[in-house]
Amino acid sequence: MTDTRHPQRRYPGHWRRLDHQHGLSHDCRCALVDRENRLWAGSRRMGLTCYDGTEFRNYTVADGLPDNYVRRLCEDAHGVLWVGTHHGLASFDGDRFTTHRFPRDHPNSVRALLATADGRLLVGGQRGLYECRDGALVQIAHEDTGPVSVRAL
Length: 153
Fold this sequence. Notes:
Elements: E1 2-3, E2 6-10, E3 28-33, E4 39-43, E5 48-51, E6 56-59, E7 70-75, E8 81-85, E9 88-92, E10 97-100, E11 110-115, E12 121-125, E13 128-133, E14 136-141
Antiparallel strand pairs: 1-2, 3-4, 4-5, 5-6, 7-8, 8-9, 9-10, 11-12, 12-13, 13-14
């Protein structure tokens, strides 16, 4: 079998084990295969790891992540990678990370991410549901009935 997007890559029909000895974090919390067929893995302590089929690259707070505890990953229709961490949200355009802030006085732990078909990014947080609009997180579902933590979308 050949990957039509990357004809040089061949998959002989068996699994290849990748672990911390190869460069993958041993405490993976979430994973995503993007449109470029790269594997992204978020960890609890080591940040974000990208495997392109040949080598691993690790990203941490030193590279612009809000926190090294990566909880959720999502890719939108434009190929932007969204990274939900214990201390905020970041987007990665292939070159750099951009941090997107929760409203003041709101806990900023990302619990869920969803890129919708109409181009919106929904973010589940400790105090409800948010939408990323023009780089800012705007609360769209309120905690009128008490604290609501959105953990899945």
